[in-house]
Amino acid sequence: MSDDGRRTFDTNRDGHRSAAGAVEHRPRRGRKRERGSMVPAAEFTSYYGRPIIKTPTWKSPDVPVYLWVGGMAGASSVLFALAGETDRPALRRGGRLVAAGGAALGTVALIHDLGRPARFLHMLRVIKPTSPLSIGSWILSPFAALASTAAASELTGIAPRLGRLAGWGAALLGPPLAGYTAVLVTNTAVPAWHEASDEMPVLFAGSAAAAGGGAGLVISGVTGSLRENTPAARLGALGAAVELLAGRQLERALDTLPGGIADAYRSGPAGRWNRVAHALTAIGGAGALLARRSRAGAIASGLALAAGSLATRFAVFEAGRQSAAEPQHTVAPQRARLAERREHASAEGSWLAGDDATSPVPRT
Fold this sequence. Notes:
Elements: E1 9-11, E2 17-19, H1 62-85, H2 89-114, H3 117-123, H4 132-156, H5 160-186, H6 191-194, H7 200-223, H8 230-255, H9 268-290, H10 295-324, H11 327-348
Antiparallel strand pairs: 1-2
Helix pairs in contact: 1-2, 1-5, 1-7, 1-10, 2-4, 2-7, 4-5, 5-7, 7-8, 7-10, 8-9, 8-10, 9-10
């Protein structure tokens, strides 16, 4: 009490008043503030746990099958065009049918994913060099026409010279058809695809070669022309080796990035597809070299190579869907690149090194 009877109060260090002589301790609430800052530090990881980007709307199994048959048909067209020039008629005949059937099935899968046939025709109205889908449509369409012409000539015996020229035309478009799908998936914002833009084309090329070689082994086993399957066995074994090595390199490259993007290929449906793909591809590649002289061995090895290639496409597709749903896969690499740019700018003495350097450079 003061001398006039009124009650006095003291103010403690936290700004809270208490009666004179009383001790009041109130715990500080909230997060610790950084020195010199009035706002607590915030670390953005997601928007209320929601994905940063939208999950791809591509359908399954339409798109994985499209990726697979396109690669197999493209690789097969080259193999079987060479078979026709090296006196391997059974391999040439069956191969032309595989290339035409793969192109037809890929076209059907693409149209089904688009929803209406008119949408596929609309893509052929213009050609956009900056659009992988536009370029791919213009690769697929003439390839399908040429492969179908070669197959029709093979079946009917009509115009063999035209069929031979059509087969070589399809063979020229085969490698772009087998590889452009890798550019298609990596030209997206999906981290598991986009961040693997250097390794994905090699993976898809190896997978296509393995599937094409596998198709040749199956044809030689079914027709009994085992003496003709040497090129198919070598292509299948080489493609299997490239596919396995490229897959491992892809995961190692993603391991160097923050956010755990590589886990998209190791967990969930993608991880299961990946393990199946590795096992089938390894078995098929070994069988292509060791068991190609047996009809049963050639057929089994070829089917394993083709199935392993299909499993690889499903693994890549599912990894993209899982990665798009994980916010850290998008945020962490972006933050790492931003920090690297600031560090580089700081070393050069640039004004961009400041945390508040968000406005454009003023023009003079």
